[in-house]
Amino acid sequence: MKKPIALVAAMEEEVEALLACFPQHETCVHFNTRLFHAHHGNQELVIAQTGVGKVNAACTLALLLSDFAPGCVINTGTAGGLQAGQHILDLLVPEEIVYTDVDLTPLGLAFGQMLGSEPRFRVAPALLACFRDVLAEQPSPPVCHHGLLGSSDSFIHSQQQLDQIRARFQDSVACVDMEGGAIAHTCTRFGVPFLILRALSDAPGSGDSALDFQTFLKRASAVSANLCHALVERLELLNPKF
User: Fold this and answer.
1) Which is catalytic among the residues 13, 14, 44, 96?
2) Do the Cβ atoms of 79 and 177 come closer than 8 Å?
3) CA-CA distance, 20 to 28, in Å (whole number)?
4) From the candidates 90, 177, 202, 212, which is the catalytic residue?
């Protein structure tokens, strides 16, 4: 029997973009969390809005993983770029995720490493390879960046914040968000493969990052949701591998 695929995003606009891709869905409330049940062909989907921030993301995802036992998790939505050459509406599909606001270095751990965890969380290689195949088949694919996603409970907007992250991680962080670390951490704890798809709502040198985020939130959400839809189509053929 096929396992469901869990699709999660933090904000209402990001979830609305997902629901537009899967219009045949039903709504339910499960432990005060609104969920959407959908099908794509024979593939069952559970779609949820986690809320913003790491605690909200971890709570919602733990509920999904324990009560619905999905075969994999896809986290879509938006993020802020950190690297030169990135542009708004580019795509970021990280290979690894790190906390940028965890500091247990006095205990001998790497900056960003939580006690009992690896310094970084890795996405599922098979899901990443599958997505790369999907992206290559798109007629007009967005520019796609890979690398490291940095996650914290702060909206990164000031030059001081940017410089601090770049210095602590040797300029290796490609983009930042507020949920990816918790998504990755929770999936890793539960042993469930995951992938993160983020379109950039703001990028270095684009101006006011907070204003850009509000301006491009819906468009960036649609970019990641549409590619998530294409990935689900592929996974429907491959499940129950995932």
Assistant:
1) 14
2) yes
3) 17
4) 202
- Catalytic residue list contains 171: no
From 17, 160, 157, select the one nearest 78 (Cα to Cα): 17
Instruction: State the pLDDT confidence band at 242, using cuts at 50, 70 and 90.
Output: low
Q: What is the C-alpha separation between 82 and 20, in angstroms, rounded?
A: 29
Domains of the chain by residue range: 5-238
For Cα atoms 232, 1, 6, give the angle at the middle one, nearest 5 degrees: 35
The count of other CB atoms within 10 Å of the CB of residue 12 is 12
What is the C-alpha to C-alpha distance for residues 72 and 207, in angstroms, rounded to an integer?
36
* C-alpha span between 60 and 74 (Å, rounded): 14
Question: In the predicted model, is pLDDT for residue 10 greater than 60?
Answer: yes
Residue 217 parent element (H or E): helix 209-238
* Alpha-carbon gap, residue 239 to 144, rounded angstroms: 25
Amino acid (one-letter) located at 71: G
196-228 pLDDT, tens digit per residue, is 999 988 776 556 666 666 778 888 899 999 999
29: Cβ–Cβ under 8 A, 6 or more apart, which residues? 35
Is CATH 3.40.50.1580 the right assignment for the domain spanning 5-238?
Answer: yes
Percent of the chain residues past pLDDT 90, beyond the cut: 62
Residue 26: how many other CB atoms lie within 10 Å: 9
Q: What is the C-alpha separation between 99 and 113, in angstroms, rounded? A: 7
90 catalytically annotated: no
pLDDT category, 163, cuts 50, 70, 90?
confident
